[in-house]
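Quick start: what a row looks like.
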Amino acid sequence: ATADSAKAADEKKRVMNTMPSLPLDAYAGTYTHPAWGTIIITLEQGVLDAKIGTGANSAGPLTHWHYDTFHAMLGDARDGPTTLQFVLGTDGKVSKVLLGGSEDYAFVR
């Protein structure tokens, strides 16, 4: 019941019918956090994939959520989606990605 309630709350925050700010290939790259390691985003056949760290269950495809936010279904997806929010710098390029949408988990390009 708690998971269903959290999912419903997340759905209410979603802004439908938005597009990413940039072409998908602009999000691909390696992002680093001093304590948490790396997130590698790749683009293959029109789909972004994320690999977070080195664990076997730390990789999966990204689906567009809204604006520059994507959901990743990592591993067997039993933990639900992981939110990746891409942040653009003043130059209009992706400068970092926030894991869970939190600045505490800012991985810098």
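That is the whole record. The first strand starts at residue 29 and ends at 33. The radius of gyration is 14 Å.
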